[in-house]
Amino acid sequence: MKKIITGLVLFLLVAAITAPAQDEFRFQVNEFTLKNGMTFLVVERPTAPVFSGVICAGAGSALEKQGAIGTAHLLEHMMFKGSRMVGTSDYESEKDFWIKEDSVWARLERAVREERYVRLNHPEKLAEHLAYIESLRTLLDSLAQASSQYVIQNEFDLLYSRQGAADFNASTAYDFTHYYVSLPSNRLELWFNMESDRLKYPAFREFFTERAVVSEERRLSVENESDAKLFEQLIGTAFIAHPYQLFWEWQSEVNNLTRQDLADFFNAYYTPQNLTAAIVGDVKTAEVQKLAEKYFADIPVRPDPDPIYTEEIPQTGERRVEVHFEANPALIIAYHKTSFDSPDEPAFRVIERLLGEGRTSRLYKSLVIDKQICLSVSVDVFPGNSLGDKYPGVFNIYAYPKEGISSHEVEQAIYEELNKLIQTPVDTKELTKIKNNIDADFIWYSYNNMGLAYNLATTVNLAKDWRYLSTMRKNLLAVTPADIQRVAAQYFTETNRTVATLVPTEKGEAR
């Protein structure tokens, strides 16, 4: 049933010492839901003739099935290839080539799987079988080349750019995928047209070329980066059950994804009831609702997507992992933490700032300035959604020892600081400063059209109600020194931690 809510005002107040300054920031959120279940949030800001639009899909990499890891990431790439109307000069001819490509790929994939058995049982036929595999690869390349003659490169991007678009991009995380852009206000219908078109008629063109691009991203972002390699091992060690355990998709799985894998994921998770759109800027709610009905209401209702049933079991002992790499020493310590809706989550947000925000943070002052045993030290949470993660994640401390300082020495110094957090209440003045900084950052982010649209869309998919933004802020401001001590004592324990250490190797030394 369609609904529209007006007059709902969310007060997000700029942190300040004086109360009058806090009453200056407010905005009204108008919400309506189409009959197919897709939710729209509108904030009218007529201060400049522009708007930002964000669509949040509850479709992240944590939802991928084993054997199809990388689907969410590759699908995000393919959504920029256009639709059956955008990005092609002849959709039907192009589609015919896709069918041929997929048929050849199925034969190629089967032949590659059979190679081991030919090698084992019929070695005299191996050369012939390998030649057959190579011929299929050549045929697949030629079909992909022939298909490309119908592709209008980057047409989706060009259509937006010519109309004054900014911030046009997307991002895939563990729980969500976001699509966003800012445009002049008189291009509102263009946004509805373009975004609904690719959600209703996605075209997975140049599939094998783009699949290779996503595969190559892992080599560039993980295989050649010491920090990424270390973090990947940390996450894989800290999680043994939950899908958060995978830091980056495996090339072996990406290289075997099919168009059907993408179609299955799209149909399962890009359902209208799993999509939230937020439009913030110089727009009118009545016009947004009219356009939403015109362009999005005919997206068919599909079954609700499957949730993640797997829960990470409690850790019962310290876990440690080493990575040997040609790089400087590094250390990461991870502690299992809470999901966004846990009563302990606000304390974690404060502790993150207290321990690791900038040069005035406790860990930086202790390890870098006072003891001078580290080049740098920082803190974050994983997966790290700005509003909290849907499932319990981990709290991470990163440290880079100075030359001549052992990782063990740095590790013990970190534990000393964590023990201080447990044993001694945080000074009220220090805590107030941290909470005010968190509040101010959030408010200034929300002053930006894109920032507010992003937070609103994400909050609905995360908490099922955009008003959780207000609840989250209230809970953060309510954190006490006793809360910090209690949470630190409960979670920063030896049995709840995983430690990853990078051990430097000499150039050319086997890893």
At a glance:
The chain has helices at 19-22, 71-78, 91-121, 126-147, 155-161, 188-200, 207-223, 226-238, 251-254, 259-269, 285-295, 345-356, 362-370, 407-423, 428-447, 449-463, 468-477, 481-491, and strands at 3-10, 27-33, 39-44, 50-57, 166-172, 177-184, 275-281, 319-325, 330-336, 374-382, 394-401, 497-504.
Strand-and-helix sequence, N→C?
EHEEEHHHHEEHHHHHEHEEHHEEHHHHHE
**DSSP, total strands:** 12
Distance between the termini: 60 Å
Biggest beta sheet attributes: 7 strands, mixed
Query: Judging from the principal axes of the Cα atoms, what is the shape?
Result: globular
Overview of the structural elements:
- The chain has 511 residues and is an alpha+beta fold.
- Helices cover 46% and strands 18% of the residues.
- A hairpin with a 4-residue loop joins strand 5 and strand 6.
- The relative contact order is 0.16.
Task: Tell me the layout of helices and strands.
Layout: E1 3-10, H1 19-22, E2 27-33, E3 39-44, E4 50-57, H2 71-78, H3 91-121, H4 126-147, H5 155-161, E5 166-172, E6 177-184, H6 188-200, H7 207-223, H8 226-238, H9 251-254, H10 259-269, E7 275-281, H11 285-295, E8 319-325, E9 330-336, H12 345-356, H13 362-370, E10 374-382, E11 394-401, H14 407-423, H15 428-447, H16 449-463, H17 468-477, H18 481-491, E12 497-504
Parallel strand pairs: 3-7, 8-12
Antiparallel strand pairs: 1-2, 2-3, 4-6, 4-7, 5-6, 9-11, 9-12, 10-11
Helix pairs in contact: 2-7, 2-10, 3-4, 6-11, 12-15, 12-17, 12-18, 13-14, 14-18
